[in-house]
Amino acid sequence: MADVRSKLDNLYTLEQFSAGSSAVHRLHPLVKILVTVAYLICIVSFDRYTVTALLPYLLYVVIMLGIADIPYNVVFKRVLIALPFCLFIGISNMFFDRQVVFELFGMTVTAGMVSLISILLKTILCVSVVLILIAVTPIASISKQLRQLRVPEIFVSLLEMTYRYIGVLLEDAIAMITAYRLRSNGRKWPKLSEIGFFIGQLLLRSMDRAERVYNAMKCRCYSLQDRVSKQIPLKLSDWVFFGIGLASAIVFRFVNVPVLLGGLF
Amino acid sequence: MIIDIKNWSVIHTDGTKAITNMNLQIEAGEKVALVGANGAGKSSLITSLVGIVDGVGTCLIAGIELKKEKLDEIRTKIGVVFQNPDDQLFMPTIYDDIAFGPRNLGVDEETIKHRVEDRLRLLEIEHLKDKTALRLSGGEKRMAAMATVLSMKPEIMVLDEPTAFLDPKARRKLIRILKDLPHTMIIATHDLSFAAELCSRTVLLKQGEIFADGKSEAILQDDELMEAADVESIAKYLNYK
Question: I want to staple B199 with a disulfide (CB 3.0 to 4.6 A). Which of A99, A127, A258, B31 is the partner?
Answer without folding.
Answer: B31
